Amino acid sequence: MSDYIERILKARVYDVAIESPLDPARLLSRRFGNDIRLKREDLQPVFSFKLRGAYNKIAQLSDAAAKRGVICASAGNHAQGVALAAKRRGIPAVIVMPQTTPSIKVQAVIDHGGEAVLHGDDYDAAYEHALGIMRERNMVFVHPFDDPDVIAGQGTIAVELARQTGGDMDAVFVPIGGGGLIAGIAVYLKFLYPRMRVIGVQPADSCAMLQSVNAAKRVTLDRVGIFADGVAVRRVGEETFRLVREHVDEIITVDTDEICAGIQDIFEDTRAIVEPAGALAVAGIKKYVVREGWKDKRLVAINCGANMNFDRLRHVAERAEIGAQREALLAVEIPEQPGSFLRFCETLGRRSVTEFNYRYEQGRAAQIFVGFSLAQGRTEREGVIASLRSAGHAVTDMTDNEMAKLHVRFMVGGHARGITDEMLLRFEFPERPGALLRFLQSVGSRWNISLFHYRNHGSDYGRVLCGIQVPMAERDEFRLHIDALHYPYADESANPAYGIFLGS
Length: 504
Prior knowledge:
Strand order of the largest sheet: 1-2-10-7-8-9
Shape: globular
CATH topology of the largest domain: Rossmann fold
CATH class of the largest domain: Alpha Beta
Number of helices: 20
């Protein structure tokens, strides 16, 4: 540990980085009964903490190594840090980024003087391509997290926290991707304040560090979620894994809705918009204090980045209210007769209806998709469902149904009477020009497409809901076909939202 303490204290970061402020989150603090503060790494010159580790690594290079130039693979934030650090030292930098990288991050690399190379659909493909260029051009590779100098650079955040708080912190919540940020912070804070809790936060669909800790060895995820792209890592670093096991108290996970609610919370307190990874720590604090019943604790969240594509805000806004448990989504059956909607709304009381989707069906009970606002979260939602059922309505809770939230709530039409052999599948594919066409070409024309919904959510991956007519005798062959496409997919044929709103 002493080696890292020395590395952190000697780290060179302030030629390019600022000492980020530790701002009170007054609204969050009041809501949750704890003193919550935000470490504003989103205010760095590249809008992310990554600048610290990248610059410290490049600053430590010998003149001979620096002249060879540097190269890295990154989904964006590390890329900007390397590009700016290389520019400050006057050396060339090649940045290999996945083709799915948000344009705002690609342009930022170019603006900082880096050579941007787009390759592959994810970090791993970009990483392998970067290694090839490194060997070809004899450049120095700057790893985004698994490097002692990079870890030490990120650890300077902990030095600032100790100075800004005097060590008066009960817990620090830190986002985790590959582990460089939390490794640097944890090793320093645990050296000074052994009783302080350091808690890592990961997306539930990108939790390589948590799974590795639980398995007591590094594991490689088959796939990672792409919403919080800044922490979408399939395999954590060897050194970061060691340090996390030794110094981090706990790792928790949060889902997409909780992350979106965290973005909204930070905006309401600071009027700043962070990227999904930047809101992980706040989402983690909210979940943790409720779970533990904490009150009057001093808690710090690391706001790690703010490189957000503007069009992604649409998706964030849609999901934030659900993540904060301020909105419920229900499928409700009401009689197909005049006045039914009025009586249904009377059961809801004075709650604000956020959406109402309905299509007439003669001679049948009407199936409606309804959203409404909540003031008291899950308890209130469960109470409304009970009241509706007492009034004779069949109710299915869609609040946590991913297919319903991504697709069904935006679809119009209704049931397809008489359709046969339909399977319903939900796909994801890298979002880039021509991607939808390539997806359809890959699926092919052997089986008839009977339902199709695609919506650009402003994220790095396109999402499609697809109905395909496949006779039972051909199901095994069909599954082999779509497995060979290597697009992540889920069979939603048994999803209740399908039966209620879309099926035959």
